[in-house]
Write a structure and sequence with these properties.
heterodimer; A: 583 residues; alpha/beta; 21-stranded mixed sheet; two-stranded parallel sheet; 17% strand; B: 5-stranded mixed sheet; auxin signaling pathway (chain A); nucleus (chain A)
Chain lengths: 583, 203
Amino acid sequence: MAYSFPEEVLEHVFSFLHSDRDRNAVSLVCKSWYEIDRWSRRRVFIGNCYAISPRAVIRRFPEVRSIKIKGKPHFADFNLVPDGWGGYVFPWITAMASSYPWLEEIHLKRMVVTNACLELIAKSFKNFRVLVLSTCEGFSTDGLASIAANCRNLRELDLRDSEVDDLSGHWLSHFPDSYTSLVSLNISCLGSEVSFSALERLVSRCPNLRSLSLNQAVPIDRIACLLRQAPQLIELGTGAYNAELRPDVFSSLSGAFSCLKELRSLSGFWDAVPAYIPAVYSVCSGITSLNLSYTTMQNPDLTKLVSQCPNLQQLWVLDYIEDCGLEAVAASCKDLRELRVFPSDPYEEDEFDIALTERGLVSVSEGCTNLQSVLYFCHQMSNAALISIAQNRPNLTRFRLCIIEPRSPDYLTLQPLDAGFGAIVEHCKGLRRLSLSGLLTDRVFEYIGTHAKKLEMLSVAFAGESDLGLHLVLSGCESLRKLEIRDCPFGDKALLANAEKLETMRSLWMSSCSVSFGACKLLCRRMPRLNVEVIDETSEVAESRPESFTVQKLYIYRSVAGPRLDMPDYVLSMEEESPDLIG
Amino acid sequence: MVMRPWDPTTMISCYARKQNHSRLSMAFQGDLNLEATELRLGLPGTGDHERRTPPVGVGVTKNNKRGLPELEDGHREESTRTTKTQVVGWPPVRSYRKNCLQPKKTESESGGGVYVKVSMDGVPYLRKIDLKLYKEYPQLLKDLEEMFKLKGGEYSEREGYNRSEFMPAYEDKDGDWMLVGDVPWNMFVTSCKRLRIMKGSEL
């Protein structure tokens, strides 16, 4: 086009597009827009590290500053993915080390990160600023020492939920005295004690520190002096919060908290002693996020604390909150948007140890009109309650319910919970994420396939009666990207009938279902851009497995990189198993 | 052992048994008469329907303990309640969550307080209390009354419970069920493993 805008103008316009989807759409308009987008894309999100090779990403987007990569499937969080499965980030780091010298941010989730990776990061990226390792593993505190020692411009170091080989707390002392740019530090997953004086000096010389999540090893009587050095904190994760009550410690702590005028988020509180909790009351009115899911604090102290936070938007808590506590939340926390209630003792034999039932969730759904996101573990549920919740909160976008005993029916009527979940998908038209539990027939999948048009992620366990269930979901859920299924009677028919659908999704996980080896091979042959991986930990040799053999675990994902080369011996790529077809 | 041939009603009554007491409190029990098809592991004829029937060594008396003859050696609920075979990855809770809580529980139990579970017949949940917070029986009983919203009875050292609707019992270290108040307070605190509030109508 003769009179099109100069590239710089278009680039400037594109810089206002922040979502990947928008930028992807823009890149499809014409070749010149594709090129402009390519050269100006600064952030890349790789939802599955095996969907594309590092080289391909670098080739297309040569000027990336921030990358986010995810590795293992979600069910790895619950020990369903054996060790050594994969998700190694090293190939990505090596490729980027030579091609992205100006890389500033690396965000990883469920990946294997070694000390070698961390050392390479520390050496290769001169302007490195942000390292977020979410649920990662494979590295030790020695690797952290490299980062601390070499990344002069580091702003964020966030190790959330990662499994770190914690050799000692000495790594923290590797931050040089000249280093002052820390903005966010999250070491809550580490066990060892870090040198407190090093921590204190670090905090005091970093004036931009806004987020600090300590680990359990930091005792309560030390928090006050840290807080005094950082009154500008917005997020705080305390360390252990227990000790014999000492008035001097209490008043010091209380005074320190009252100086935190900008604090919005609180977490930690391991072993919280109720007597020390009032020390935080002064900040409660400003708190928007509260994570009490590690504390053994119970009612009435627990409810009392939560009820003091009228501006609360996000609450993560254990079932110690009980129904009465949630009623109080419904009455006091009118701006609540996200609620997560975790089980204090998931394997408790006495099922009714805690007075938390469906009633708590119903109360919150009634009282909190902005509630959008729910994760709720409980022991009993009814269709009536689910229908109530659905009618109260049609604005729900995430609804994850875990009734702890598999296949539990509606406890009032003993019916399956199909109608209840059906109401959820019918009323909550914007629902993007759903996790099912309880006794469910194929009916619930009919409702989901019919109504859940915006659903992107679905988790299913111990549900359904036949292949029809899976078929209804795959054929009906237009926006589905991730599907994870365990212990359901779903098999070959539904999978093969919806083979094309699988390429429109990021991934499908099925374990303890009824899919045969033969069907996996067939699927792989039919869909060249799907990687079909069978995980089989039995000792039988692959060749001897008959077509009818039921696979233990199956992970299917779309990829333009072909089958991966780093599979352990218990992962079989169906690509290798299927003979080449002629023509 | 009475076993019924498997049929759908048996499956339902399996759930009914588990949910029994909560359903009791919902007052649906009468309509469905599920006891007729209920799967039970007990001698035929033993009639106790309460979920938390504690096992008792009938007639066994050591150290002059006054055992509770009312409680029959029927359903050994403690041992027959199927230990949940832990399904891998279920419930879907991340391991770091499980790790950080379990040790804390025992700490709280062995550290400061003496925590015991308190169950009450017909109530669908247990409570936990710290016996260390009390110095004498009347205090404890008053709290139990408040906790479970009971109309209290009168207790005296000599006569035990008079004209009360409920009777608190406790399981001691030997697994025997005793009446609360039988032994000196300090001995009670050290030997009590769990409490159960029994309805007067059973007595």
